[in-house]
């Protein structure tokens, strides 16, 4: 039931917007009683060429009217403009998106390189969102072992390519490389004679998907994004989740003025065939997430733009389990559902030239439960 509600929340705004767009287009179509003569007068044109002066400057009332090639060409051009179908409005350039953590709604071809450095993840196997349940739980648990880390630092390097064959649709893929460094472990999750698992590195779970714009113009974009996660990372080393996942989300971009803009995202992360714990239930759980990021362009020139951006991003865990430490210092498996995590991100994006963009930002957790307490992000984006 929770999964159905999550999917409904994501898709409902798309249906409402599509319906409203269809009604607006019907209202804008001209009625059958529109008069070509009225159109001519309203645009400043002449309804009858015989009422204009002749090519030699004399009145046609006193002499035979002579054909004017220039007038005929102008008339044909005007008629072409009237009958030509209106072009679909193009979306804003990729440089219009200034966010660093919220996925941007603007569709276009781009290459992006991103680096994250995150610190103090206190429950890395929570709902199997970062990596699988701790191998210390036994029963073939796919996560790293021995030991359950309650403080882990990690870094991730992402290589992403997006290609838009048309203005409202694109496909993308993302390849992440991950490094993890466990800082401490929950007592009792590894034998005293055996050291817990150490630093690991390697490819993480590859992602791929598509974007489809419901509406797109120079001032706003409403885009549906679908992303799939593939278990290419080694879950036993903490490099992936060891299961497939899908992530539908709705992205929105709105230009408020020449300098102000706001971007937002809402969606869900849905695991497929995650692990389970005997006698307890599924370890992986659905996660609802949301984010918003207003930006202001302090510098807004043709060849360079600079905009600070503040983003608020949150997650609500709807199900699943996590390995945690009790107040007495012993390990236990707890229900992760109902966990709320909120981060505040502060950064700035600089766009230079027609294709280049750089973002640098810092994130801080504002809730007790975290995916990380702090994060630093740097990104380079090339659009074409």
Task: Give the SSE string.
Answer: HHHEEEEEEEEEEEEEEEEEE
The end-to-end span amounts to 42 Å
Q: Let me know the average pLDDT.
A: 84
Query: Counting H and I runs of at least 4 residues, what is the number of helices?
Result: 3
Approximate strand percentage: 35-45%
The number of strands is 18
How many domains in all? 1
Describe the global form: elongated
Question: CATH superfamily assignment?
Answer: monomeric porin ompg
Q: What integer value in Å does the Rg equal?
A: 29 Å
**Topology-level CATH name:** Porin
Note the main sheet. Answer: 12 strands, antiparallel, barrel
Set down the secondary structure blueprint.
Elements: H1 2-28, H2 36-42, H3 69-83, E1 110-121, E2 149-166, E3 169-185, E4 200-203, E5 206-216, E6 220-230, E7 244-255, E8 260-272, E9 276-277, E10 281-282, E11 287-296, E12 299-300, E13 304-317, E14 321-325, E15 331-335, E16 340-352, E17 356-365, E18 374-383
Antiparallel strand pairs: 1-2, 1-18, 2-3, 3-4, 3-5, 5-6, 6-7, 7-8, 8-11, 9-10, 11-13, 12-13, 13-16, 14-15, 16-17, 17-18
């Amino acid at each position: 039931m929770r999964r159905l509600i999550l999917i409904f929340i994501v898709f409902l705004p798309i249906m409402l917007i599509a319906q409203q767009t269809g009604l607006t287009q019907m209202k804008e179509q001209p009625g059958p009683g529109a008069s070509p003569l009225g159109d001519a007068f309203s645009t400043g044109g002449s309804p009858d060429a015989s009422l204009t002066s002749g090519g030699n400057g004399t009145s046609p009332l006193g002499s035979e009217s002579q054909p004017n090639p220039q007038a005929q060409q102008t008339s044909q051009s005007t008629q072409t403009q009237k009958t030509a179908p209106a072009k679909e409005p193009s979306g804003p350039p990729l440089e219009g998106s200034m966010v660093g953590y919220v996925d941007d709604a603007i569709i276009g071809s781009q290459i992006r390189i991103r680096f994250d450095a995150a610190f103090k993840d206190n429950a890395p196997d929570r709902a199997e969102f970062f990596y699988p349940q701790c191998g210390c739980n036994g029963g073939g648990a796919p996560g790293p072992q021995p030991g359950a880390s309650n403080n882990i630092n990690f870094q991730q390097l992402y290589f992403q390519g997006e290609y838009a064959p048309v203005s409202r649709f694109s496909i993308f893929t993302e390849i992440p490389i991950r490094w993890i460094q466990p800082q401490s472990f929950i007592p009792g999750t590894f034998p005293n004679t055996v050291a817990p698992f150490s630093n690991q590195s390697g490819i993480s779970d590859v992602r791929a998907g598509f974007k489809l714009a419901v509406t797109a113009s120079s001032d706003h974009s409403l885009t549906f994004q679908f992303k799939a996660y593939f278990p290419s990372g080694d879950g036993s080393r903490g490099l992936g989740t060891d299961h497939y996942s899908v992530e539908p989300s709705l992205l929105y971009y709105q230009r408020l003025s020449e300098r102000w803009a706001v971007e937002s995202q809402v969606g869900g992360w849905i695991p497929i065939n995650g692990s389970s714990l005997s006698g307890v239930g599924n370890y992986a759980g659905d996660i609802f997430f949301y984010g918003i990021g207003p930006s202001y362009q302090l510098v807004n020139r043709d060849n360079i733009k600079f905009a600070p951006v503040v983003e608020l991003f949150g997650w609500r865990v709807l199900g699943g389990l996590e390995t945690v430490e009790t107040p007495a210092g012993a390990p236990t498996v707890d229900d992760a559902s109902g966990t709320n995590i909120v981060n505040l991100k502060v950064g700035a994006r600089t766009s230079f030239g027609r294709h280049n963009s750089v973002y640098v930002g810092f994130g801080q957790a504002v809730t007790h439960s975290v995916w990380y307490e702090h994060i630093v992000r740097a990104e380079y984006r090339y659009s074409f």
